[in-house]
Amino acid sequence: MSLTTDITEFVLLVVGAMGLSLTAKIEETPEATRIDVEGEDGGVLVRRGGEGLQALQHIVATTFRKQLGDDNRVVIDCNGFRKDKDIELRQMAHFVAEKARASGVPQEMGPLNPYERRIVHLAIAEDPTVTSESIGDAFMKTVIISSKK
Fold first, then answer.
1. Thinking of the domain 85-147, which architecture would CATH place it in?
2. Full-model pTM
């Protein structure tokens, strides 16, 4: 059995223990393996800005940390919630980058969790005219986007 299958079964076990009836679909992308749990009960995970989904992501990351290592990323999504948020975050990063470029003044985004910061840094890396860096010493950090001189 593969690690992805183990993780998917674990996720279904956890949501089942929560009393949720959901199915799981696995998608391999260049950035990560995505496990999208789907179903009408998914609303429970995406309430309050996806707090339940974020907690499930954390449980999976903690449980499978050793097996995953540093190079393998697994993203847990629910009914496309995270995918939509990722698109929104990328658009916001590009908007803030344009503002930094036009004004010459560094712009802040955040506070963001590690997953969100990664999305922003990858979006900014696509644009050679701007840079990004994380500041702060807590789990949630701010990303500073600056224009390259």
1. 2-Layer Sandwich (3.30)
2. 0.77
